[in-house]
């Protein structure tokens, strides 16, 4: 059973194991009458053929309180888009599939590219951004959740707990971050969060000094969780990274735009497991190696916007400080694993720390070499300013795709 300890400056909502999910869903259904709820699912077509996503869709088909589900579909041909429409047909909720490679959405993307306000990189960030835009365009939801499509331990109560803090009219939260224990198959997972983010934030607090932003990030128990929820008005002014810095970038935007008491985190699962990335020790452009570089760059860029100065020497100091703190944390994880009868490969854990330390230097050097680099996708407010009817065009493209290809599926 979780305790009730409040960590840092962000409210933590624990799972004290006292409430049945049916009761929680019944309350959410009552909220939905005045505060309709939606869900965003960024996915690859390949995930439709995997183990996790079909099970997730089966669970979602039973959820009684959702008004809309928006699915972003990446890497899909025309035939695969048609297959996706059939795949999601079992959902009783109003739902739309954004065919991101389709000619209509590609044409809109080309217009935005010409104006300099389109995502520059393919990937999850771009997918999420277009889904957020469509959610704004459809205007059917007041509270929206987002979660990944590769969760092999999915259950309906994950979604219910995730969206509850922003759906309950008696609560004032604009944003909620999910957290969970990353333990599965007798071992501790979550290497990037455990071995990079936590010790890196501690190292930055030592090298930079007291900083409200670092205090904010340090309050989250699992800052890299891909599950979060928000009020619809959050979407318009959110600038998100298009790379692996998405989760940290979203938290950074919440810190920039809202007081910390408008943000919370919630325990959404006792057992969480999903697709694991390769460590990629010899490839800085792939797997957890690229992820660690992107995340570190996200931290450095954010602190630079607050007036912090970085140099080759300060990056070296940060790397050394991180490395020592990460090894200390590894000892803590080792004790935790032994106490709970879990396996922890100390050799591979140390190899990961060594790689992350090298990547702190790489990320710092990339920042120093390209200080004017702007990896953020523009906010929808800016895009609307550049193209006032963009939401109407986006909605029309999605609806025309749906109408044309749904008929071909029947």
From TrEMBL:
SUPFAM superfamilies, A to Z: Nucleotide-diphospho-sugar transferases
GO MF term list: transferase activity
Domain of life: Bacteria
Keywords: Transferase
Protein name, entry field: Glycosyl transferase
């Amino acid at each position: 059973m979780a305790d009730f300890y409040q960590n840092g400056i962000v409210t933590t909502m624990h799972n004290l194991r006292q409430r049945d999910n049916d009761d929680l869903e019944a309350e959410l259904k009552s909220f939905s009458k005045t505060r309709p709820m939606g869900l965003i699912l960024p996915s690859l077509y390949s995930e439709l053929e995997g183990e996790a996503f079909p099970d997730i869709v089966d669970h979602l088909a039973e959820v009684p309180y959702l008004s809309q589900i928006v699915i972003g579909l990446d890497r899909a041909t025309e035939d695969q888009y048609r297959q996706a429409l059939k795949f999601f047909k079992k959902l009783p909720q109003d739902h739309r599939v954004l065919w991101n490679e389709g000619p209509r959405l590609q044409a809109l993307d080309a217009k935005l590219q010409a104006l300099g306000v389109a995502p520059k990189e393919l990937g999850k960030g771009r997918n999420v951004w277009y889904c957020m835009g469509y959610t704004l365009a459809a205007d059917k939801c007041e509270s929206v959740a987002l979660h990944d499509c590769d969760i092999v331990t999915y259950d309906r109560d994950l979604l219910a707990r995730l969206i509850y803090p922003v759906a309950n009219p008696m609560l004032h939260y604009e944003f909620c971050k999910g957290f969970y224990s990353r333990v599965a198959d007798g071992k501790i997972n979550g290497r990037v969060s455990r071995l990079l983010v936590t010790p890196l934030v501690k190292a930055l607090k030592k090298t930079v000094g007291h900083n409200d932003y670092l205090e904010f990030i340090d309050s989250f128990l699992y800052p890299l969780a891909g599950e979060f929820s928000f009020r619809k008005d959050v979407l318009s002014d959110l600038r998100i990274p298009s790379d692996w810095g998405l989760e940290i970038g979203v938290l950074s935007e919440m810190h920039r735009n809202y007081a910390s008491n408008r943000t919370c985190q919630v325990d959404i699962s006792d057992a969480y497991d999903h697709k694991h990335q390769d460590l990629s020790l010899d490839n800085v452009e792939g797997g957890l190696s690229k992820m660690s570089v992107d995340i570190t760059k996200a931290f450095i860029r954010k602190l630079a916007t607050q007036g912090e100065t970085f140099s080759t020497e300060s990056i070296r100091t940060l790397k050394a400080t991180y490395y020592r703190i990460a090894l200390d944390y590894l000892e803590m994880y080792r004790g935790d694993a032994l106490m709970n009868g879990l396996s922890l490969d100390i050799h591979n854990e140390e190899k990961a720390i060594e790689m992350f330390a090298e990547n702190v230097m790489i990320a710092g050097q990339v920042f120093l070499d390209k200080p004017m680099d702007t990896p953020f996708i523009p906010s929808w407010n800016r895009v609307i300013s550049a193209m006032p009817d963009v939401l109407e065009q986006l909605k029309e493209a999605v609806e025309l795709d749906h109408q044309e290809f749904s008929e071909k599926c029947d």
